[in-house]
């Protein structure tokens, strides 16, 4: 029996709609600038004909469940929400073809990629890693997972409100790289594994939040219903 100097952290996991089992989280991947209008508002338009999708990762330990209250993080004055459709991987795959990509899909969720925008932009402009801007404690918020094995979501409203005021409103059909393309491309870099989450990108309208703000977002999954995520921004530690 293996013994440890101190207790290992509990494996992050998410609830699954309609099941008692939980979904254990392996890794968190995020697709950068995957809606045209958001890419424009960030000052980095995307030309898919000559550019490739790019990704960053967030530690699984940053994951918090929908409904949480999280502290306003340190070292920022510009804490942003980014509403996203989250893809949950259910089977392993490497160098997966687009025709086979659906086989890796376990389900979907609604997520918030919370961002220290000021730190991210400084890092971006200096050509440095985005870690302090993106890999934030309690910065990966996610709803329960809706099981949709083998289903590729191609369209569906995606929206976010802050204190009841709509800030983001778009449709998943506006993804620059769609679900099949994301799975196919990401699987050329990594051996995708059950438990991987992929935050697929955010539409335009991202913005700053303050202590006390309440965030509510949702994604329409058609006949499978809606997945929704909420978050309250608490006082700084």
UniProtKB/TrEMBL annotation:
Coiled coil located at which positions?
A: none
| Domain of life, source organism | Bacteria
Q: Where is each Fumarylacetoacetase-like C-terminal domain found?
A: 28-222
Q: Which UniProt keywords apply?
A: Hydrolase, Metal-binding
Please list the GO terms describing molecular function: hydrolase activity
Key word Metal-binding present in the record?
A: yes
Any Pfam family hit: FAA_hydrolase
What protein name does the entry list? Fumarylacetoacetate hydrolase family protein
Organism from which the protein derives: Hydrogenophaga atypica
Q: Source organism lineage? A: Bacteria, Pseudomonadati, Pseudomonadota, Betaproteobacteria, Burkholderiales
């Amino acid at each position: 029996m293996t013994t440890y100097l101190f207790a290992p952290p509990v494996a992050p996991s998410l609830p699954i709609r309609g099941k008692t089992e939980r979904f254990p989280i392996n890794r968190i991947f995020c697709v950068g600038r995957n809606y045209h209008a958001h890419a424009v508002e960030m000052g980095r338009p995307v030309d898919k004909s000559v550019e490739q999708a790019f990704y960053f990762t967030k530690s699984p330990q940053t994951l918090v469940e929908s409904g949480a209250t999280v502290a306003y993080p340190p070292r920022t004055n510009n804490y942003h929400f980014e509403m996203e459709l989250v893809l949950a991987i259910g089977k392993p795959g490497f160098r997966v073809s687009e025709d086979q990509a659906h086989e890796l899909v376990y389900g979907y969720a609604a997520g918030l990629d919370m961002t220290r925008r000021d730190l991210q932009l400084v890092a971006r402009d200096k050509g440095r890693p985005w870690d302090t801007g993106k890999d934030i404690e309690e910065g990966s918020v996610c709803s329960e997972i809706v099981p949709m094995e083998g289903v590729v979501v191609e369209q569906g409203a995606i929206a976010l409100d802050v204190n009841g005021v709509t800030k983001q409103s778009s449709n998943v059909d506006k993804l620059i790289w769609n679900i099949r393309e994301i799975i196919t491309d990401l699987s050329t870099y990594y051996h995708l594994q059950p438990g991987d989450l992929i935050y697929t990108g955010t539409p335009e309208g991202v913005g700053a939040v303050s202590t006390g703000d309440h965030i509510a977002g949702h994604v329409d999954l058609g006949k499978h219903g809606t997945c929704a995520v909420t978050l309250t921004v608490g006082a700084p530690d």
